[in-house]
């Protein structure tokens, strides 16, 4: 059960103390208090953990300072959508950029940072096309121990400085160990915080529970959690809940394709039809990664790359973030060159997304008009 307090209730107020005192007296119930920092206000949510079935919802709802009480109907207590009236916000703000189930951001960038000049060419192109987000891989989890593992700590300062130079506000950057959080924090401090970082947890670490807990315990960086490539959707959503249960609610859920071993035409079986499913089950914005799903620059007979097709399919279904590999000279890329788009393809890629997004907005408007005259449509 979740007790949502009125937005003006502060922790040092009389109402807050009374509510806590009342709830603490409920037999066999443990309290877990979360502060949710939204774009406009701070909301306090109190999670009642234990056997809450017989608790008097109306009595708790009547306490001064309580806005609403929501019964939890499924396992994702913090990130899930629970009742028909669970219209709690899906939004969070980070470094001036708002993420929600209604926004759309493109994170085009390098799968792996190789040279300062490639980072600079990438960021300059992004700025020229009005982009304020990117992806930059410093710590690369590789299948083969002899493959390039990423420049790690050594590239962070120049990546952050160049981001500042070209107005990049958020960099999605994978970490594979909790010590990387400290390295990123130190590099941001050394360079004077010219940009922000969204910490990415890759598909190989989706169920690395200790990493999830460490990343969940910090609130400074939002998190992009990729779906595990060989586990159920429910298991991956529970992994996201690990982050939230430790206190970090700024979580974006990433679809990146599944391993099926069926000789797919793509590197992974594209799972973007799950975009609306994740939005229905949880309040997380949903990211898609066409590059690691498709894994090639194959082109359909209509002239569009498979990468463009699957991106548009996700955007027309309401995706909120696109993480995509680009490289100024893909033949020289140290990781995943064959799936990288060229800088000259950036404007077309963005325009294509724009077309799909407009179509999505029209579809939502059509559904809303239908629903307002016939709610069971
Ligand atoms: C990546 O985004 O660079 C990456 C390694 O992705 P994934 O974890 O989805 O394989
Ligand atoms: Mn990659």
How would you describe the overall organization of this protein?
The chain is an alpha/beta fold. It has 2 domains: about 1-70, Alpha-Beta Plaits, CATH 3.30.70; about 95-370, TIM Barrel, CATH 3.20.20. It contains 11 helices and 14 strands. The strands form 3 sheets. It has an 8-stranded parallel sheet. A 4-stranded antiparallel sheet has the order 2-3-1-4. Helix 7 (about 235-245) links the parallel strand 11 and strand 12. Helix 3 packs parallel to helix 4 and helix 6 runs parallel beside helix 7 (about 235-245). The longest helix is centred in the C-terminal third of the chain and has 28 residues, at about 345-375. The protein starts with a strand and ends with a helix. The model has no long low-confidence stretch (mean pLDDT about 95). The structure holds phosphoenolpyruvate and manganese (II) ion (MN). Phosphoenolpyruvate (PEP) binds near residues 111, 202, 256, 289 and 292.
């Amino acid at each position: 059960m979740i007790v949502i307090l009125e937005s003006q209730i502060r922790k040092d107020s009389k109402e807050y103390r009374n509510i806590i005192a009342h709830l603490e007296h409920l037999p066999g119930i443990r309290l877990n208090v979360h502060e949710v920092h939204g774009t406009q206000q701070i909301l306090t949510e109190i999670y009642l953990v234990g056997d809450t079935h017989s608790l008097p919802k109306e009595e708790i709802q009547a306490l001064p300072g309580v806005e609403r009480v929501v019964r939890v109907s499924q396992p994702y207590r913090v990130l899930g959508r629970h009742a028909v009236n669970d219209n709690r916000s899906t939004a969070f703000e980070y470094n001036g950029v708002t993420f929600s189930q209604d926004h759309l951001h493109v994170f085009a960038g390098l799968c792996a940072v190789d040279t300062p000049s490639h980072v600079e060419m990438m960021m300059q192109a992004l700025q020229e096309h009005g982009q304020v987000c990117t992806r930059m891989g410093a710590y690369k989890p590789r299948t083969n121990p002899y493959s390039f593992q990423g420049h790690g700590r050594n590239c962070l300062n120049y990546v952050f400085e160049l981001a500042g130079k070209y107005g990049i506000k958020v960099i999605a950057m994978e970490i594979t160990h909790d010590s990387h959080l400290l390295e990123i924090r130190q590099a941001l401090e050394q360079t004077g915080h010219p940009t922000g970082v969204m910490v990415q947890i890759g598909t190989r670490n989706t169920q690395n529970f200790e990493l999830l807990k460490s990343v969940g315990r910090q609130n400074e960086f939002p998190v992009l959690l990729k779906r595990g490539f060989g586990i159920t959707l429910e298991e991956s959503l529970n992994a996201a809940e690990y982050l939230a249960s430790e206190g970090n609610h700024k979580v974006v859920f990433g679809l990146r394709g599944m391993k099926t071993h069926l000789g797919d035409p793509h590197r992974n079986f594209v799972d973007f039809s799950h975009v609306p499913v994740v939005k229905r089950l949880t309040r997380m914005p949903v990211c898609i990664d066409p590059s690691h799903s498709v894994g090639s620059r194959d082109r359909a007979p209509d002239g569009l790359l498979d990468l463009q097709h699957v991106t548009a399919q996700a955007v027309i279904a309401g995706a909120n973030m696109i993480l995509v590999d680009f490289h100024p000279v893909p033949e020289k890329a140290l990781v995943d060159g064959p799936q990288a788009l060229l800088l000259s393809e950036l404007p077309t890629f963005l325009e294509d997304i724009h077309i799909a997004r407009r179509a999505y907005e029209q579809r939502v408007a059509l559904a809303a008009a239908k629903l307002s005259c016939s709610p069971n449509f």
